[in-house]
Every structure is written in structure tokens, then in C-alpha cells.
């Protein structure tokens, strides 16, 4: 059972992804931020653009949610980045990809399951030392670290229905856009900027063959 204050529950209701820590940002050591652009005469902004900055995941919202000071937040960030470095090395040494057809691809890491579980358990212990066991357990459960980071396979899929393309990766989120948004030869570049979990596999030697997945998906297009 997780106990939270009424204010904390309301914060989660307003922003369900408030405590999500993007593993891709940890593995890359970079995170995507919004930067205001435009505006006239120094007032306001016409929109935002995204930029990658160094430093791994942004833990500001988690720190505000739990009331951590700067020292505890930095300790948490340090243990997360140590875990990410170990996971990156583990996956690079064990990666294997499969293309079963139909616009699908799967990253597998045969023989690495035991070590990956050990590293995740070590991370849990280090988090408890960094921010206290109570907060560590609450963050662990609410953020879904065990479920999301403990996966031994990373599926990727592309499907086409009419003029619409659907792309899914390991985090379960789906990106949908029309074929008119860009020519087929630009598909790979479009994906790198639109898929939230792109960073999750960007450290691997076997990169996603988006062109192949799109061709297979088009061949299996549904109307």
C-alpha cells in the first residue's frame, strides 16, 4: 500500500506521468526540453521547440513532489546514472534483433536476464540509501520502474491503415501520423524526433531499420 498526502494525490491526478523517469534519457545522458520560440516585442511566445541537453533525466518534479533537498536529489540522479551505465554495457554485449515480419521488430538480450534483474535490485537498494526507503518504495511503484525497466525484450511495430501510420515501442505509447507528413525516405528521421522511447535503444549497435518496417507495414496495409 502506498500512502500519499491529499496534495500529492491531486498532483498525480492532474499529471499521471509526473513521476515517470525516462530510461532513454538515462541511457543517453541527455534529455529533451521545451524551449519557447517566437513572440512579438518581447511578450509571450508563439510556440515551443525541443532541444537535447546534457545531464540525464530531469528529477525536478519528483523532488518537488516528495520535498527532497538538492543533496538527496543529486544522490538519486547519481545512482540512476550508475544503473544506466551498467545496463548500457550489458545490453550492448548481449543484443540480438529479430524481424518476424509484418512491420515488427524485437530487441532481445539472451542470457542477460539474471544480471539485469540483479542490477535492478541493486538500484532499488541504492535509491533507498539516497532518498530514504519510504520515498524510494513510493517512487518505485508509482513510476513503474520495475515494470518498465525490467523488460527483457523491447518490441517495435509499425502498421499502416489507409493513409495513417501507427508506431509503437516498448513504453506502450503510440504515435499516429499521415503518410503525407513526409516522404517514405524521410520516415527514419521522422521517427527519431517523434518516438518518446527512441533513446531507449539508441545506444545499441543494431539500430531499428525503419525503412524495412515501413515497407512491410505498407505491404500489409489495411483500409
Describe the model.
With 223 residues, this protein is α+β, with helices and mostly antiparallel strands. It is built from nine helices and seven strands, in the order ααββααββαααβββαα. The protein has helices at residues 6-14, 23-28, 60-66, 70-94, 113-131, 133-143, 145-149, 187-194, 210-219; strands at 30-37, 47-54, 96-101, 104-108, 153-161, 164-168, 174-178. Strands 3-4-5-6-7 form a five-stranded antiparallel β-sheet. It has a two-stranded antiparallel sheet with strand order 1-2. The longest helix is centred in the middle third of the chain and has 25 residues, at 70-94. The protein starts with 5 loop residues before the first helix and ends with a helix. The mean pLDDT is 85.
* H/E element sequence: HHEEHHEEHHHEEEHH
Q: State mean pLDDT (0 to 100 scale).
A: 85
Low-confidence regions: none
Q: Helix tally?
A: 9
Shape: globular
Strand order of the largest sheet: 3-4-5-6-7
The residue fraction in helices comes out at 40-55%
Brief description of this entry?
With 223 residues, this protein is α+β, with helices and mostly antiparallel strands. The chain has nine helices and seven strands, in the order ααββααββαααβββαα.
Key structural traits:
223 residues; alpha+beta; five-stranded antiparallel sheet; two-stranded antiparallel ribbon; globular
Secondary structure elements and pairings:
Elements: H1 6-14, H2 23-28, E1 30-37, E2 47-54, H3 60-66, H4 70-94, E3 96-101, E4 104-108, H5 113-131, H6 133-143, H7 145-149, E5 153-161, E6 164-168, E7 174-178, H8 187-194, H9 210-219
Antiparallel strand pairs: 1-2, 3-4, 4-5, 5-6, 6-7
Helix pairs in contact: 4-5, 5-6
